Structure formats: structure tokens, C-alpha cells
């Protein structure tokens, strides 16, 4: 059997995104897995084609192989909270609870679930401003740039997320509008998933910004996805507007342990290349902890600092927008990329994906602590 082959998706960005071929996921030796893992951490988004036969169990086992000590779904049971903004977007595979079903439209039967309707997240439910209805099928927005992570309690950000395209409507493209005063736009396939590299985001910073990022930590909100449930996003999907609309902390579910509030480094280290990614979940960041021990708690200021660091990294030429085909299995390094749902479907356009990630067995690896 020939060994795994890896080929960059975009020759002009050979370090970001790769197709992996000649990989038999049903019979993946330790050496084969090691080659797959190296490809993942080198290219950060990898696609294996023609995996329609992969079972939910096989998908969960493959995802777990990147972090064998990890057990539960990345958000644990936190998405069950009715006020969580994640609640409507995910349906759990009954016999494989680490695997979620996402998509759009009516499905009569899938993996033991019957007669259910999936709803592709639409920016109108999350952004402060929206694209007018009569332009909605031609133009769209990045819904929400994020890391797949609960960012709360003992649930550390998953190392890897897998996405399997089971059913994909095709035939249209849309234009993403940044609508942030920049005139930036990006033509994308319908229902793409957009990725940007946290490594490029970091490497393009000034020397002064890099020093700041390497020595600064971010505090996330308690119950983050309930906290922002009443607030609205910026038009570029990269963080929230600061209008004082977040759920007040004393109206959130109780914080059981002070350590449930997560404080994470801004820079996360790649275990294979040693590179640092600027890796901040922009919509749920709440405070910034500086090297000298002082804390920036002014939310508007915190968000401006984070947006100034991240926005250059989502420039159109830096976005990889995957053109999904049925059977595509995409694995991405969730400690090294940000990603976003994109697009608006008609209600008749049926899309079905399976997603799996697992709360990591360890926190992200930050820089060595420097004095
Ligand atoms: Fe995600």
C-alpha cells in the first residue's frame, strides 16, 4: 500500500491547508496516524476526500486519537443550557454523544434521529447589522470567528475538530462582505467554512505586538455563551459590539469554583512546528491580564485591543474557504486556527454535516513564562 501523500490545497499559500490522500482510516497504523498528525500540525487544516462511509464511531475514534486522554464532547453538557447561543445549532448523535449533527433543512432520518429540521446559523440572529433580505442569497457575512471551545470550567479547548460533509447543496457562490469600513469582500462557495491561520496572524504582528501577545493572558467570561446571548456581533464576525448588552454576571448561572473562569495565554504553541498562533476567542473574551499583574477590565477597551491584533489576520487573501463536497472529512488544528460558519441557505437547501471534538486533556501550551 502506498504511504500517505500530502499536497497543499493552495499553491500560493503552501503552508496552510492540504489534501491528504492514500489514507485508510479503517486500518490506520500508528505510523500512518503519525503521518496524518504531522500533516495536520504542519498545514493546520487537512481534507481527506471520499469518507462518506466513515461511521460516527469511526469519526469519534479518529478524533480521540489526537488526544487519547480526552473523553467528553468539547462543550460537555453546556450546550444544553437553554440560554446558550450554541443550543439551537447542534443535535447530538444518540449513540455517539461526542458527535454532533449540524446543517440546514429538513431531514427525515439520520443515525436514529427522525423528522428533524436543521438550521444553518444566520448572521441576522447574531450581528448588530444585517444584509437586507433581498440581497441575502448573494451576499453574506462571516457568522462568528471562533475556536471550538467551552472556555469555561474544566473543559479545555479541543485539540482537533473533525467535520464530515454528508450532504452538501451546490451550485451557488456568495460574496462575503466585511462591512467594517474596509470595503473588503471575499467570493466564497455556498456554505463554506472559512479558516484563518493563527500562526500567520501572529507572525504578521509588529515586534512590539508580538512581545505583548507572548506576555499577556486573556480571561474569558463565566458561562461565556450565555453571557453574550443578549449582545450582538461586529459585522466582520470578529468579536462583539460593546453596548453593555451582555447578561450581567450576577444573572448568569452560579460560578461553582473560582477556577471555572478560564485564563488562557494569547499565544498557543504548535506541538510539531513550535510556532506560536495568536489564539483568542474574540466574542467571549472579557479581561486582559498584563505581564505586570495588572488587569484591563474595561470591556470596550479589551475588545478593541483584541480586534486590533486579530483583524489583519482575516484579510481576504489570508482566508481559506473550503469548497465542500460530499464525503470531505476536514480535520483542523483547533489550537492554531480560527474558523467561521459562512453563508445563508434557502430553507429547501439541505445540508448535513457531522462535527466532533473533545475537551482536551491539557490546557493550550503558552510561551515560557518570562519575568
Ligand atoms: Fe466551530
UniProtKB/TrEMBL annotation:
Cofactor requirements of the protein: Fe(2+)
Oxidoreductase in keyword set: yes
Secretion signal, residue range per the UniProt entry: none
Record key words, sorted: Dioxygenase, Iron, Metal-binding, Oxidoreductase
Location of the TauD/TfdA-like domain: 10-354
GO molecular function: dioxygenase activity; metal ion binding
Keyword Zinc: no
Pfam families: TauD (PF02668)
InterPro entries recorded: TauD-like_sf (IPR042098), TauD/TfdA-like (IPR003819), TfdA_dioxygenase (IPR051178)
This protein's name: TauD/TfdA-like domain-containing protein
Gene3D superfamilies for this protein: Clavaminate synthase-like
Assigned protein family: Belongs to the TfdA dioxygenase family.
Amino acid at each position: 500500500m502506498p504511504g500517505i501523500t500530502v499536497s497543499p490545497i493552495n499553491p500560493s499559500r503552501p503552508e496552510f491547508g492540504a489534501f491528504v490522500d492514500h489514507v485508510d482510516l479503517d486500518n490506520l497504523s500508528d505510523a500512518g496516524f503519525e503521518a496524518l498528525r504531522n500533516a495536520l500540525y504542519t498545514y493546520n487544516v487537512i481534507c481527506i476526500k471520499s469518507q462518506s462511509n466513515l461511521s460516527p464511531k469511526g469519526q469519534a475514534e479518529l478524533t480521540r486519537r489526537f488526544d487519547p486522554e480526552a473523553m467528553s464532547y468539547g462543550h460537555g453538557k453546556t450546550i444544553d443550557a437553554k440560554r446558550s447561543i450554541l443550543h439551537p445549532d447542534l443535535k447530538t448523535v444518540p449513540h455517539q454523544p461526542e458527535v454532533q449533527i449540524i446543517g440546514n433543512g429538513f431531514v427525515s432520518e439520520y443515525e436514529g434521529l427522525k423528522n428533524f429540521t436543521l438550521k444553518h446559523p444566520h448572521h441576522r440572529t447574531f450581528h448588530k447589522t444585517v444584509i437586507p433580505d433581498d440581497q441575502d442569497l448573494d451576499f453574506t457575512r462571516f457568522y462568528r470567528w471562533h475556536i471550538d471551545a467551552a472556555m469555561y470550567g474544566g473543559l479545555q479547548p479541543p485539540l482537533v475538530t473533525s467535520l464530515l460533509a454528508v450532504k452538501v447543496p451546490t451550485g451557488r457562490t456568495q460574496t462575503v462582505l466585511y462591512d467594517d469600513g474596509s470595503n473588503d469582500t471575499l467570493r466564497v462557495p455556498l456554505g463554506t467554512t472559512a479558516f484563518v491561520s493563527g500562526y500567520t496572524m501572529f507572525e504578521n504582528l509588529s515586534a512590539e505586538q508580538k512581545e505583548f501577545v507572548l506576555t499577556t493572558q486573556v480571561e474569558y467570561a463565566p458561562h461565556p455563551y450565555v453571557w453574550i446571548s443578549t449582545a450582538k456581533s461586529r459585522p466582520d464576525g470578529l468579536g462583539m459590539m460593546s453596548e453593555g448588552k451582555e447578561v450581567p454576571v450576577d444573572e448568569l448561572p452560579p460560578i461553582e469554583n473560582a477556577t471555572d473562569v478560564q485564563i488562557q495565554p494569547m499565544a498557543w504553541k504548535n506541538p510539531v512546528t513550535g510556532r506560536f498562533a495568536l489564539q483568542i476567542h474574540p466574542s467571549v473574551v472579557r479581561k486582559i491580564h498584563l505581564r505586570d499583574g495588572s488587569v484591563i477590565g474595561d470591556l470596550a477597551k479589551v475588545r478593541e485591543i483584541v480586534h486590533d491584533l486579530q483583524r489583519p489576520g482575516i484579510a481576504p487573501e489570508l482566508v481559506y474557504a473550503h469548497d465542500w463536497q460530499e464525503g470531505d472529512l476536514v480535520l483542523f488544528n483547533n489550537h492554531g486556527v480560527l474558523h467561521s460558519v459562512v453563508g445563508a441557505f434557502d430553507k429547501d437547501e439541505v445540508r448535513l454535516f457531522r462535527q466532533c471534538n473533545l475537551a482536551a486533556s491539557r490546557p493550550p501550551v503558552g510561551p515560557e513564562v518570562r519575568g
